[in-house]
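Worked Example 4.2. Read the sequence first, then its C-alpha cells.
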Amino acid sequence: MNLLLTVQIVQRTLVKKIILQFVEEPIEITDREVKRLKRSRIPLVKVRWNSKRGPEFTWEREDQFRKKYPHLFSKTGPSSSAAS
C-alpha cells in the first residue's frame, strides 16, 4: 500500500504599502523679467506651480530653470527675434 502525501503550497500575498505623495511641478512660465544689478543682468521667469494649496507662483533664474525643465520653454510664445 502506497501512501501519497499531497502538499499544498499556500501562497502568501504580500501587502505593499502605497504611499501617495503630491509632487509640485511647474505648469507654465507666465512672465519674464531681467533683474539689473550694478555689473550684471539676471534673466528671471515667473513660474506657475501645481500646488495642492492652490495656484502658487515663484520667480526663478531662467538659465537654471531652463536646464531642469526645458519642455516649458518650447511651449512659450514667440520670442522677440521671431517677430520680424
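Now turn to a second chain, presented in exactly the same format:
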Amino acid sequence: MPVEITVPDDVSPGQKLLIDSQPVAVQQAVPVTTAIVVPSAPFLTTCPHCHQNVSTRVTRKAGLVPWLACLGLACVGCCCGCCLVPLFIPDLQDTSHFCTNCDTFIAKRSPLKAAAAASSSSSS
C-alpha cells in the first residue's frame, strides 16, 4: 500500500529523514444478521421498499405441515373428511406478510421454521 510523505521545505537533497512509522489499526464493519421470529398475525414494521411504517397484510396458505398432519390422521384411521381439519387451522398454515402501502413481500412464517427457531432459542 503506497504511503504519501510530505517532505519539509528545509530538507536538502541527500539528507536522511527519520520517519516514525507506527502500526495503524484498521477496523472493518462486519455485517450482523439476526433472525427474527415472524408472527402469524399482522405486525408493525418498516417496509424495505417504500420505507413507510406499516402494519403488514397477511395471506395464509396450506403448506407442508397441514398436509403432513392430514396424512398422519388418515394413516391412523381418520376418514370421511376428518383428516382434512388441519388444512383449516391458521396456526398450521404458512403466513406471508406484505406491505399495505406498496404490496411488497416482507416476510414469511412457516410453522416448521418457527418451531425450529423456538427450539434452538430455548436450548441456548
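Notes for the reader: DSSP finds two helices and five strands in the chain. Residues 44-123 form one domain.
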